[in-house]
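Input sequence (423 aa), recorded before submission:
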Amino acid sequence: MNIRLPRLEGVDLHFTAPPSKSGTHRALIAASLASGGSSVISRPLRSEDTLCTRAGLERMGVRMTDTGENIRVEGAGCILDGGKGEVTLDCRNSGTTLRLLTSIALLHRHPVTLTGSARMQERPVGPLANALRTIGGKVSYKKKAGYPPLTVSGTLLGGPIIIDADISSQFVSSVMMAGPCASEPVEITLRGQEVSRSYLDMTADVMERFGAGVTRADDGRIVIENMGYRAQDYRVEGDYSSASYFFAVAAVCGGRVTVENLTPSSLQGDRRMLAILSEMGCSVSARGDEVTVGRDGPLTGLSLQMEQTPDIIQTVAAVACFAASPTTIEGTANLRFKESDRVAAIEAVCECAGATVDIGEDAIAIHPGSRPGGGVLDPADDHRTAMSAAVVALGRGDVTIAGAECVAKSFPGFWDVLREAGI
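Predicted structure, token format:
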């Protein structure tokens, strides 16, 4: 599917943020491992990624019922059994699913093989597998060592574990979420520069909501008590990552955009998008669960450190293309290990905007307005590339996004929402 959007100026738009993808993944897992009955997950995100996590949990024996607005999860406790012996989980292109369920697989009575798309098989999982081996896990690789597909078996014993946290916070979140079901408390020590710290805070928050014990020690360790989970009803909050594209439209096109269904006190790190837009020259105001971003003057380029908020780097880059001065974004090295090579994707999107991009080992500099721009953008099946390209397209009017259906990974209704807004 190809999408070509019109150039807009002086917008006045209103959107509703979709449910949080990260929150949905974590709530489904915690509810699946809970004892004491069923949990109701209200307003979950139904996207390709979250449906992969649900399918994986069901393959391992968890029963779920979709009631339309909600999903009822029958807690299986800390022992999973799909009743089919060894099971295979096809995680498709969902790195979150594969990484989070790799540790959960240790709770299944039989070996679990986790696999996925061709791109998924290029995304490293070795640091997580190595860590699990120290606390009772057995991991073997089907093809290339350190990469999916991999088979997990063994018993989650608990105890001290060291995790390389400089590639993905999901390695840490994976062990954290399985931790309450270990034989003894899990003591996680992080090695390397901790990236995407806010996602660990979100993980801990969901776990605690389901009765788990999580402690951040003074020395930086994360201690997970082996006390299991308890069934709990949980409402998924709105997603600041998805809302970032709407806010970016206000910045690029001028005018104002209001997004509702956002929690002001949310732990989501991607709330930082609002602070960045404010620094660039936008106005930001909040009332209740609504946030409004407006712009009536020029945008100013910034120098930003963003390794803690990788999911909005592409959105910020799209806005930077329309600023009056260059923007430098540091902390970009790990973008090469995402659903696509997002460093290359940023360069392609910025070129469509008419900007020039200088790429360093861990930084990207964006120089606005030095190229003709326009053309066709192939997002390489990456949802965030497609949605950041939409921001550029609305700012220019001469950009076509090919393969636009890839937004189904995190925001299936994205194009429909824009259409319903009159775009």
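Checked by second reader. The first strand starts at residue 3 and ends at 4.
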